[in-house]
Specification:
With 338 residues, this protein is mostly helical. It has one domain. The protein is built from 12 helices and 2 strands, in the order αααααααααααββα. α7 packs across α12. The radius of gyration is 22 Å and the shape is globular. The two termini are 34 Å apart.
């Protein structure tokens, strides 16, 4: 029974990845949007300008969907087809790689056409920076950085946790990541209330961000880069970023693309001076397109590894079950001889 569940999880994750590649994000009735409305309702009932209130909010907003996912997984433990469909749907909803690459290509097209007004209007689809005063180089840099970071958040993260914990892992990761986007940023309202969500997101992404960076290094030749250079920049610059995870992905991407990232970022009234990552010049529209291709390749590799890991657990379980049966048979035979 356990083996059938793990097989269904692996097949479901693969199908979910194929659905994302074919259709991108669901255009209507997106489950993540529904979760956002649920989390907003929880926030309205729990908000206080204090960290304990934020911790309670995070526990409820993450705990409820994870509990429901665990219940759904338990109810389908003897129904591999239903479980496969359930995991496929959750994986499709959790992944955002195709839409992320599409947004990057749209930005590249607008920058190539010199339409800065449209490019500035496009940027909020990728990140929260104020685009009003950004020129073409800064718009390109923001896009490359966002694509690199979100390759972990929107692709590798849910696949990693799906490989580790199946359906509850996929749902739980997406809930944590969504909460971080909602309340984890620094602002007057969320400086304390959002701390628990931000820290939980940091913890959930410690491994996926580094897996993303490693896959980026491996995939560098696909976009004309060198894996050696990408590895060097990742190891040298990955820890310079204020985020413990984003810098890993961005540094590896900078090395793979041969560009320099980092600099001055404006978020409304807040200004951040980010350290430079990489050794090249500022990215341009061509580099934005290369970043989109790199993201897709990394996502495809992560999907294959995640499905293989879940299927590998199936094979390991089969081997353990076989060994247990053999041991029981040997013991029974010994008992008969006595």
């Amino acid at each position: 029974m356990v083996l059938r569940r793990l097989q269904a999880d692996a097949i479901g994750m693969l199908l979910g990845g194929v659905l994302d590649a074919m259709f991108g994000d669901p255009r209507r009735w997106h489950p993540v949007a529904g979760f956002g409305r649920f989390a907003g309702a929880v926030e309205r009932h729990t908000y206080a300008d204090a960290r304990p209130a934020g911790a309670r909010f995070t526990a409820v907003a993450v705990g409820v969907p994870v509990t429901l996912a665990a219940l759904a997984a338990w109810l389908t433990r003897r129904r591999p087809v239903a479980r496969t469909v359930l995991v496929a749907g959750a994986t499709w909803a959790a992944l955002g790689g195709t839409s992320l690459a599409r947004e990057g290509r749209v930005m590249a097209d607008r920058l190539d056409g010199g339409d800065l007004d449209s490019a500035r209007a496009q940027l909020p689809n990728l990140c929260g920076r104020d685009p009003s005063a950004l020129g073409a180089p800064e718009l390109a840099r923001a896009t490359v950085e966002s694509v690199a970071e979100n390759t972990s958040d929107a692709v590798v993260g849910p696949l990693f946790w799906g490989a580790v914990a199946g359906l509850p892992g996929i749902v739980g990761y997406r809930a944590v990541n969504t909460l971080d986007a909602m309340v984890g940023h620094r602002s007057a309202r969320y400086a304390r209330f959002g701390t628990a969500s931000a820290r939980l997101d940091d913890l959930a992404n410690l491994v996926p961000s580094r897996v993303t960076a490693a896959l980026t290094v491996a995939a560098a030749p696909v976009v004309g880069g060198r894996s050696g250079a990408a590895l060097r920049v990742w190891l040298r610059d990955g820890g310079r970023h204020p985020s413990p995870n984003s810098g890993q992905c961005e540094a590896a991407a900078a090395g793979a693309l041969g560009v320099r990232l980092g600099g001055r970022n404006v978020y409304g009234s807040r200004v951040e001076e980010r350290p430079h990552l990489g050794d090249g010049g500022p990215p341009g529209p061509r580099d934005v397109r290369r970043a989109a291709v790199l993201s897709l390749v990394v996502g495809a590799a992560a999907l294959g590894l995640a499905c293989a890991a879940r299927a590998g657990a199936t094979r390991a379980g089969a081997a353990r079950a076989g060994a247990a049966r053999a041991g029981a048979a040997t013991a029974e035979a010994a008992g008969r001889e006595l």
